[in-house]
Amino acid sequence: MYNPFSIINRYLFLEMLPPFFINLAFFSFIFLMKQILDITDMIVNHKVGVGPVCLLLVYTMPYFLQYVIPMSVMMAVLMTLLRLSGDNEIMALKAGGVSVYRLLAPVLAFSLIGTLLTGYMTLFGVPHGSSRFKTLLFNVATANLNVGLKARTFNDSFDKIMLYVNKIDPHNGELHSVFIEDHRNKEVNNTVVAKTGRIVGDPKNMIYHLRLFEGTINQMDMKDRSSHVIHFETYDIRLDIKAAMTSPGTGEKGPKEMTAAELKAYMHQVKRTDKERFFGASLQLQKKFAIPVACIAMGLLALPLGVQTKNSQKAFGIGLGLFFFLLYYLLMSIGTAFGENGKYPPALGMWVPNLTLGGFGTYLLVRSAREKPSLFRWLDPIVARAIKWAGKK
């Protein structure tokens, strides 16, 4: 009678834990590199407190963990089996009558846990983290925007707007002698000069306005080269901040910030009126379930790759694993591109990578169980020469 908690199953499962956490930490650090640079800039140049910045970092973690966890699962399975093959433990198991199929249970169990963790990230972590990130980023930017502005310096932090301020009141943040070049309208260039101004935030819509007082607007029509002068007492300019635009979204929730239930409601709402948004939302809905299942597909592929790789070719085995991981996300990117414009069903674009890797992994597993030679044996002479050349160096 088969025992799912046998010594072999427990041993393999526990052996996969250390490389999983090592890979999780390593790939998380890689993903965090860009955020670390942004954080340093916010703390040093914009005087943002460490507490809010750390919270922003925490809120972005679910987004990259949904990609890091499947990758870590694959590398954990692969590195564990490569070590067992290198120590001849796989050979000993086979000599004792243990089939390769027996190794499938702990690998699938480990992959299933990875699937559940990734599913939690895609279904709950990403929508919740994105929403919190957006709100906190707006509050931080509102509180520190004037700190980022410098008097007597041309400031290009705003999209297609150049802002120059002669003086900034350190007590109330009021701007004095404001000069603006507004190039948001391609047909008309606006040059605005105002006596004073103030940056105000709209928490409800999460946008900024530059409220100007007592000034003039010089409008230049680029088609007929005519100009107009407008005098005003109060004038508001909507500002789009580049840093905010790198957040998961501003204003209304985008499809990436929605839960599965919200996506279904949104799809029903725009199905007849906006096909592009419908396909985009459908794509995000499929992605929330397809990415977690990638853990199983990658774990299934890593099993025969680890068992069939020779002891002297561990680096080659890891290289194959990374190659298939990159292939998966290449297929995912292609599926996203074609699924968004409706060229073929979004579900097909999101699930083809899983079916491809999972199907190929199943095929390799059957070959391995039947003791057939590796499909990659034609690369053995190349790998041997590379190892020999590296040894000489």
What does this structure look like?
This protein has helices spanning about 5-45, 50-85, 90-95, 105-150, 240-245, 260-270, 275-310, 315-340, 345-370, 380-390; strands spanning about 155-160, 160-170, 175-180, 190-200, 205-220, 225-240. With about 400 residues, it is an alpha+beta fold. β5 and β6 form a beta hairpin. The protein contains 10 helices and 6 strands, in the order ααααββββββαααααα. About 60% of the residues lie in helices and about 15% in strands. Mean pLDDT is about 80; it is low at about 240-250. α1 runs parallel beside α4, α2 crosses α8 and α4 packs across α7. This is LPS export ABC transporter permease LptF. It is found in: Cell membrane.
Task: Summarize the structure in short.
The protein has 393 residues and is an alpha+beta fold. The protein is built from 10 helices and 6 strands; from the N terminus they run H-H-H-H-E-E-E-E-E-E-H-H-H-H-H-H. The chain has 2 domains: 7-142 and 256-392, no CATH class; 160-239.
